[in-house]
Amino acid sequence: MKPFVSPKKIVAEEGSIQAVEEVIRDLNPKRVLIFADPVVVEVGLTQNLEALLGKAGVEYKRYTDIQPEPPLEVGDRAVETLREYRAELVIGIGGGSCLDITKAAAVLATHEGSVSDYLNLSGTKTLTRPGIPKILIPTTSGTGAEVTDIAVFSLEDTKDVITHEFLLADMAIIDPELTYTLPPRVTAASGVDAFTHAVEAFVSIHSSTLTDTLALEAIRKIHGNLRTAVWNGSDKTARREMAWGSLIAGLSFYNAGVAGVHALAYPLGGLFKIPHGESNAVLLPYVFDYVWPSCLPKMKVLAKELGLPLGGVTDREAAKSVVQALRDLVTDVGLPTTLKEYGIKEKDLDILAENGIEQKRLLARSPRPFDVKTVRQVYEAAYKGELNG
């Protein structure tokens, strides 16, 4: 049985960015490299962090060559910068792509080769050392990247990952105050991403009592607060609940795994550069419309947690009501619910299916098996916006 795994330390409360001081005292680094999203720097979210480092008398450098859905060359530049700067601590502050770059760079800086050498699907090298200590600080409530050992990179027509426990944070800091300025679209996409983590972890074939407990609490928090966080971003209670929900969804999916939604989302990001959270959102109801017959008892639990009527309702009817509720959530937060809305053509579905079926690491966790035919059927349903029944 696989043990439950998480970062060494997790600090989760408002103002918790101050916990960086503890790591500085323990490690006494001479040089720190901060990986930060450019927009995070622009809106001033690194100011407190830099003030803490300055107060401690630590030399630091800020690195902002970060892109959403990062291609391999962005990762390679980050690794080379860290090797040259010889930092003794790295801090990532930003969205999921920034945190993924931080994790990969921190480990690969002490290895030979490039990012491509260590990819899951095509890499030929193995990680052998834990690398440089790292602190991960998310500024969105969604990706869960701060508590996973996964770094995602965009290839020409799909995505691939580096995954190893060496990529886990030495400290993950979840400070809801850093999410207060997120615009609605980013709040929506990252929030549905976190919600997808929770529901996919819950129905994963690798789920456990512990991951189910975390997933269900995340579902309650996210479903109950996402709409408010999107349309009334100044509501601090909703922002806090989203931050906690994202954290525990991340812990759940890191241990139970995600499956079909994420597998089919990767080619959307690779081929059409659709942001990861939106790729998950547009596919979420259609993937569950395919998998629900294989996990009816859990779909009924989801119906209860989503507040759907259960009196006189069959398990099948409850499951189908969950599928509709998933699409309603995506609609309510203002995100597209069809592939057509992203400019995807029907002729593109075949290449999407060919790339989607290659995500075997993810598809293996699905409660209902996929083949290339069923993958294409899901893409076609998402293209047309059609749910069965």
- What fraction strand? 5-15%
Total of helices? 15
The largest β sheet comes out as: 6 strands, parallel
Quickly name the level 1 CATH class of the largest domain.
Mainly Alpha
Helix/sheet category: alpha/beta
Q: What is the general shape? A: globular
Mean pLDDT across every amino acid position: 95
What report would you give on this structure?
By secondary structure, the protein is of the alpha/beta class. The chain has two domains: 10-179, Rossmann fold, CATH 3.40.50; 184-384, Dehydroquinate synthase-like - alpha domain (Dehydroquinate synthase-like, alpha domain, Up-down Bundle), CATH 1.20.1090. The chain contains 15 helices and eight strands. It has helices at residues 20-27, 38-42, 47-55, 72-85, 96-108, 184-203, 209-231, 236-256, 260-272, 276-291, 296-305, 315-332, 349-356, 360-363, 372-384; strands at 10-12, 31-36, 59-63, 89-94, 134-138, 150-154, 159-163, 171-174. The strands form two sheets. Strands 1-8-5-4-2-3 form a six-stranded parallel β-sheet, sandwiched between helices. The protein has a two-stranded antiparallel ribbon with strand order 6-7. Helix 5 links the parallel strand 4 (89-94) and strand 5. Helix 6 runs antiparallel to helix 7 (209-231), helix 9 crosses helix 10 (276-291) and helix 10 packs antiparallel against helix 12. It is globular and about 65 Å long. The model has no long low-confidence stretch (mean pLDDT 95).
